[in-house]
Design brief:
ion transport, vacuole, transport, Rossmann fold, about 120 residues, alpha/beta, ATPase_V1_fsu_sf, proton-transporting ATPase activity, rotational mechanism
Length: about 120
């Protein structure tokens, strides 16, 4: 089973410019041999279809271990995020500078609450 996950070396990011820039400066940026990056900067002009497409792509890639997504962007594609139930890559919602984190919306916390019957 460990062999299945050994090639998952990267963190992917879907976020606003400040969040993505900070994470790229921390060293998470990568472009693979197919010229696919592991990040998407979302702004007011980014079509919803592009966000959905990128989320689906990142969650299907075999080289990504974690997908970080700003919570306010996850809200735009909430059905996709809530329906995603795989362990790898793990999808984590993060706050952004302009949008505080709301634990009531977090899909991972909702899943944990369901498991414990809360």
């Amino acid at each position: 089973m460990a062999a299945t996950y050994k090639d998952r070396n990267f963190v992917a990011v879907i976020g606003d410019e400040d969040s993505v820039t900070g994470l790229l400066l921390a060293g998470v940026g990568h472009i693979n041999t197919q010229q696919k990056s592991n990040f998407l900067v979302v702004d007011a002009k980014t079509p919803l279809s592009k966000i959905e497409e990128t989320f689906m792509e990142f969650t299907k890639r075999k080289d990504i271990a974690i997908v970080l997504i700003n919570q306010h962007i996850a809200d735009l594609i909430r059905p996709l995020v809530d329906d995603y139930d795989q362990a790898f890559p793990t999808v984590l919602e993060i706050p952004s500078k302009d949008h505080p984190y709301d634990s009531e919306k977090d899909s991972v916390l909702k899943r944990i609450q369901r498991l414990f019957g809360e």
